[in-house]
Structure formats: C-alpha cells, structure tokens
Specification:
CATH architecture of the largest domain: Up-down Bundle
Number of domains: 3
CATH topology of the largest domain: Four Helix Bundle (Hemerythrin (Met), subunit A)
Largest sheet: 3 strands, antiparallel
Number of helices: 12
Distance between the termini: 30 Å
CATH class of the largest domain: Mainly Alpha
Number of strands: 5
C-alpha cells in the first residue's frame, strides 16, 4: 500500500513539475522539498508502525543517491537546480534498496533491478530522445538561421581540417566493407568509422541550433533566478555574473535589476536550455511498465 501511494505521489509530482518547467523553465522549490519531506516522513511513519528500520533506510539511500547524481549533473552544467532537486525527491519517495551481501554479482543485479535505478536509466534514455526531438523541431522552425550558422561553423579554418579527416574516415569505413574478410570486423570497424563523422556533424548541428535558438538577448527584468548567463555582465569593471556561475543567484539578480533601473544595463545574454523535467515523468512511466534495459544485458 505504501509503495502504491508513493508511486502515485511521484507521478503527480513529476506531472506538475513538467508543466511548470515547460511553462516557466522553473520547478518550484516547495514542490521538490515537499516530495522529499513526504517521502522521508511516510517511510519513517511506516517504519515505526511495522518496526522495520529498512524502510526509512531505503528512503534515505534513495535521497543520497539523488543528491549524488543531482550534484554531479548540476555542477557539471548539465541540469538546473530544479532538475537536481526533483531527482532527490524521487529518490526519497521511491527509495533505493540494493542487496547487502558479500556477493558482488548479487549486489550488482539488485542495483540494476532496483526501481529507482531503473527510473534513472529510463529517464536518461527518454531524455536523450526527447532532447534530440526538441532540437530537431527548433532546427526545422528556424532552419534558415540554423543553416547559416552551421555553414559558418564548418567553414572555420580549424574545422576544415577536421572535416577532411572525418571524410577520410567515412571513406575508409566504406572501403573496409569490401576489404576485410571477417564479417564481425567489417561490421564493427565500418560502423565505428562511419558513426564518428555522423556524430560530429550531429554535434555541430546541435551547436548551431543552440546558438540560433537558445541564446537570446533579454531585458534584465526578464531574467529569473537560476538563468544561465551566456556572456559576462560587467559594470564599472565589476563582474556581476557570467558563464562561470551555475546560474545567476538571487543576490546577483537583485544587483543586476538595481543597475538596470539606473540605466547601466539594458540587455543581458541568456542561455535557455531544453526543459528536461518531462524526461523524468517519461522515465518513471517507462520504469513502471518496462524492465530496466540493463537487465536485458544481464
């Protein structure tokens, strides 16, 4: 009963967080902290009623795993603060319960089979597909600007040499299919040499979309806490905020808006990422319906 209730709460939490992320590019702290408190509190209450300490231990372990992953992704600039806190809330709600044994294989299998770990794996898979689709839609919508930006990127002097290397790699990959005698060698080496240039061009395409559609000049009044500043804001030789910051802080934002009212700052270059929270909702649903794909490998 507890598990069913917590799964429903996690689904509702992800649904509300997805809506707010798509609308405002933010996830309210009260929503994430509420999920953490509800997850820890409900596990603690049932632990006391059943006199089973492992229930609250699982919730704490899930929270700690969420903290570790959230901090890693946040401080490497992959997620925003709202995304990271949502993972922590999901960890507290769903819990994490790997086997405690000396058998490493059994421990590994219990981790891979754990529901929260499955949610994380499916969220990454769903997030990759979702991000590519989102980027493709932006590329089609702003195709003229994207094509122009991509042409400028690949015509840069340093990139020209890389393009020749990638083209040579593609040619070698095709020739391998006719020269190598072993079928497996032909397949693996050919795929490797062909995929490298394709992935490189995909990377350039994503960068072109990012420059055209995700980096914008906005008025300081439109900047919100946590926004990623793409270019240093410097007033009177004093740096207010910039790309090195993991999102603009409330103190920096207050100073920025004060300077804007004084007429010292008119526009700010802000980088808007893809709202990633819906990936967690998709990952949670997939984890409930489909086995962790890593189990297929086992």
């Amino acid at each position: 009963m507890l598990e069913a209730v917590l799964i429903v709460v996690a689904l509702v939490l992800c649904a509300f967080a997805s809506v707010t992320d798509l609308k405002t590019r933010e996830v309210p702290d009260w929503l994430n902290y509420g999920g953490i408190i509800f997850g820890l509190g409900s596990h603690a209450i049932v632990s006391l009623l059943q006199w089973n300490v492992w229930l609250i231990v699982d919730s704490i372990a899930g929270l700690l795993l969420g903290v570790a992953l959230g901090c890693l992704m946040y401080y490497t600039g992959q997620w925003g603060g709202g995304d990271s806190k949502l993972v922590m809330a999901l960890g507290a709600l769903i819990g994490f319960s790997p086997a405690v044994t000396g058998d490493l294989r059994q421990v590994f299998e219990s981790v891979v089979g754990d529901r929260f770990f499955s949610v994380l794996v499916w969220s990454m898979i769903a997030g990759t597909v979702y991000s590519l689709v989102w980027t493709a839609v932006l590329a089609v919508k702003h195709r003229k600007q994207v094509v122009q930006e991509l042409a400028e990127m690949v015509s840069a002097p340093g990139v020209r040499l890389l393009r020749k290397v990638l083209l040579a790699s593609l040619v070698v990959g095709v020739l391998v299919q006719f020269v190598a005698s072993d079928v497996l060698v032909r397949l693996m080496l050919g795929l490797l040499l062909i995929m490298v240039p394709l992935l490189m061009y995909l990377f350039w395409g994503i960068r072109a979309v990012e420059r055209c559609c995700m980096i914008k000049w906005v008025r300081p009044a439109e900047v919100t806490e946590g926004d990623w500043i793409a270019q240093d804001i410097i007033v009177a030789k004093k740096r207010i905020s910039g790309p090195k910051d993991l999102g603009i802080t409330l103190e920096q934002l207050d100073l920025l808006q004060k300077l804007a009212r004084q007429g010292k700052v008119k526009k700010v270059l802000v980088k808007y990422g893809i709202p990633f929270v819906p990936s967690f909702l998709m990952g949670l649903i997939l984890a409930l319906l489909v086995q962790n794909p890593m189990m297929w490998v086992l």
